[in-house]
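Why show two proteins at once? Because comparison is the fastest way to build intuition. When a single record is shown, students tend to memorize it. When two are placed side by side, the eye starts asking what differs. So, the first record is below.
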Amino acid sequence: MLVPLAGAVAMAVLLGVAAFVIFNRNHDCSSGKLPLRVVATPDIHPALNKIAGNYNKAMHSIDSKCVEVTVAKEAAAKTANALAAGKVTADFWVADSSLLMESMRQTSGGKALPQVEGSIATSPVVLAAAESAAPKLTGTLQPSWSAMIAAANVANVDGPGKKVRVLALDPQKNSAGLAALLAAAGTAREAKQDKALVGALKELSGQLAPDSTALLASLTVKSSRVPVGVTSEQAIYAHNAKKPEAPVVALYPKEGTLSLDYPVTILAKDPAVLKAAADFKQNLTTESAGKILRAAGFRGTDGKAGDALSEEKGFTPDPPTALEPPDTATVARMVQTWSRLNLGSRLLTLLDVSGTMALPVPGTNMTRMQAINKIATEGLGLFPADSEVGLWTFSTHLDGRNKDWKELVSVGPLSESIDGSLRKEALATTFSQIEAKPTGDTGLNDTIRAAYAELTKTFRQDKINTLLILTDGAGNDDPDGGVKNAEILRYLQKTYNPKRPISILLIAFGPEAEKGKRQMDALAKATGGEAYIAKDILQVRDFFLQGMERRLCSPNCDG
């Protein structure tokens, strides 16, 4: 009986030795530690830090060294810029979105960005509102990208924007902001809402929050209009997890949405560190790591949610409909769209005050001058405070015998003080007081030449430089001769510089406008601009938006 027992003991000893050898081979720290430096976006940093702590306790060994993971937090855009400049010291990077990576890849240093190696979590980009305010949105704004565009469209004065104020995240600095821009733009194009999108983006550029934390805090501020924002689902969870006095709820766009996908990029060069990075990346796909991520409000890469995103907590556990991710070219184009639309404006307005402007407009109680003044007020109301605007009037002999134009308000920032009042107020007052010159003719060509020369001389590279002409469309009518039609066209064609573009935007209102349309088109086209005839005052906002749209293609808008 002792012989089998002795054999069993011997076998147990041998198995124990084998287990000891195997354990120590996988957890051998005899040669010290192997640091793995991870950098991650602030939203996923706490969860990754917890996963890294568990990983370190498990003593993962590479070449007799135990891997020691440290996780630093940094905004993804900042890391991407530093990486493109060759200034990143991390070995392992978790950004928040592949969309951001594609956007950065189009920059001058973007070719240095390495390819991503998979995703570790997701979080849909959603609309958000204060829990107390959400019921007020019923009937005003149903959760959708198209409704958000309508509410933010600066030209839709009678739309949902009267009751709803949309807040956004800067798409050039924030991945959730970029995803929202791309989702909204894709929806707008399918619905043929391009002009509405331009109006919305122009308005949203002045409603930007620096990050999701600031945006969500702004949603709880009492206002006459219900504030609605755009952020990630996880950001809402993290906000509510802090037990704020005013919780926020997620509103899922009916068209579907894009998600942050938290891509992994391995930056290490050292062979041992590369092994450690691969091992830690594998660990991030384990169930224990996934459980930590889901508990922090993230979804799995399959879109599945954990208990953190329950209905009781104001979320929809089922994955929202996923929109088709845009390709690299689309991402680059939308980033450029945002950049161009948000260049400041520098605008010199030429206002026709010739005798025909005193004539009545058939079917209205206004003269042409009154109609044009209303048009100007409507259009200029679209420009933000940092825009530079000035005003000249034109007819004949306005400022001395041989001068057909007169400067009334110099070009400068709307927020700048002029004689004790803001330039914006000075413009409004001046427009309201201007009257037509009863005996005045129309020295349009002389005025265009002088104004275009002035804008060329004072060109601002950081602005969209535009010459706006408001007229009744009668064209050039100068008994003193002056610059002829063919001559002004040759001048504009010669002077226009696509590298320093100054476009003419011409808006005419009145029964004679159609007669002069051919010449108006020629003047505008010579500078990459556009000419419009307004049938009624409300069309003007559309014309200004169309003018803004041309920023996106300038200087090649016409092929």
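Second record. Ask yourself what differs from the first in the token line.
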Amino acid sequence: MSATDPVPASNTARQHVRAPELAGTDWLNTGGERLRLAGLRGKIVLLDFWTSGCINCQHVIDELRPIEEEFGDVLVTIGVHSPKFTHEGEREAIAAAVERYGVYHPVLNDPAMTTWRQYAIKAWPTLVIVDPEGYIVHVAAGEGHGEALRRVVAELAEQHEAKGTLRRGGNPYVADETADTELRFPAKAVATSGGRLLVADTAGHGIAEFASDGETVVRRFGSGERGGRDGAFDVASFAEPSGLTLLPEAIAQRVGYHLVVADTAGHTLRGVDLSNGAVTTVAGTGEQWRDGDDEGKALDVDLTSPWDVCWWDEADGGPGAVVVAMAGNHTLGVFDPVEGTIRRLAGTTTEGLRDGPAAEAFLAQPSGLAVGRNRVWFVDAETSALRWIESDGGDGHAVYTAVGTDLFHFGHRDGKAAHALLQHPQGVAVLPDGTVGVADTYNGAIRSYAPATGEVGTISSGLAEPAGLVVADGEVFVVETGAHRLTPLATADADQVDGEALEVRRPATVLASGAVQLNVVFTPPPGQKLDERYGPSTRLEVSASPPELLVEGDGADTDLSRLIRLSDDVTEGVLQVVAQAASCDIDAEHPVCRVTRQDWGVPIRVERGGDGALSLMMSGNPGPAGA
């Protein structure tokens, strides 16, 4: 197989495949050097196919840290940045994401997705291991593969050390310079009753308190080191904090803290006592949720990348509670600080856009929250959508969409909501005039939505990745993440925008109409087996956009293989597949168990003569060197 031939995803378990050479426009974190796989012979190479706005990709960056540290003398990790959104393909945007998320390995910018196609990648994130002789030996899609990757790398290091084909020492990573600014990639802000502004300093791993001018820092909470330590304001640590909300004074007096922080990369909620600066963990264990219960005593429940928080008086129909945008599993949660409990409010964990009863709705990386009257507005970053949740008139809640259609269409277009388009919004606020302001992050704009008329407009543009909005004494500030600052909202440059509709462009898989065999391939990590102690260890959920594409085979079941039936009348669409598998150590007295999970959005085209089968690789081994 030549270096330009793609890796056949359905055959990788049977073939010994040489890794295609890397192709892209430019490199980051290499000091300007262009890397080639041929020049890395003797090293174990781990390719991480990612895109900066994908929450699962951000999780994988954290999963790789201990592996990179343990095998630093034999392993070279290369991030292959393959963008979903137009903005993500810009070099400046990638450089910002590399710094913000602490990516300490070389990154290849692959805006045309050339390397993506050569490796036949179908999902973000996907991890590929190349052995010291240049052959692909392991492929894994999704997150939760940390231990499996560690075992594969350890086994390769041992094998190639014995063969004399392993090269130790040296690493092509060169850190890029960073500017010294008061804030680094701030995310959200709230205003206190005294007129001060509290800002989540995400890459600074702390909370900064500004005077009412939005420029003068009064004090900070957090040591600036990345971590999850509780304690006094100057010793406590945070991990990429994002959302902030203030509790009502009566509630704060009862629980002993005033501010709730969504400590995103720490997978916790933190409470801050503004009177003495003390920081405590109030929800989450510090471990990332993978599967199972997500309700109960707040300190006993795993969370997953809480991105924003807001106080809602209408929550649970009682005295109110904190709504949590749980970006990591596409849900909304409710945290009761008085009872010390947390539970799910909306979403199924399937990524998508579907309205209806809250327990059945599909969400997609909710990233911003705001309360307006009897509802909570929220933005779903991955569906480029503005949505809301409110009481259904009974004991439950329902989810509705104002702007947005699905996971794959976006743009910058004003007008009627059904026609309007956003691009990966991350912030929302109810503005003084009653309209809903949206931090349209990847469009670099502040948009407005008028609930009364359904009109969408552009208030301000030319901003650097705005991710939050805060109203303070009638004045609106923008949290301008890419510019590392708070910016008063200016409207002088407002204009009506009628941009083109864009969509995520990836190679379509050509399938036949009628019956199609869907298979998800999962191979347990070395030394592990499927965990069937308490019943089936796997789960597969299938849906489609548009729904009419899938005639039969939708819904969830425990088998990773399924016969589905595609419509004769729908020629193209996206097959949405969610798979997970639980595995445990073999013959261990106290086995370590893990859940692997992946979401695919597979663009398909239905044609006569198309394939009658679709195989997706969640984890697999193409074969040992020399096979």
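One difference worth noting in the second protein: Residues 1-14, 623-627 have pLDDT under 50 and may be disordered.
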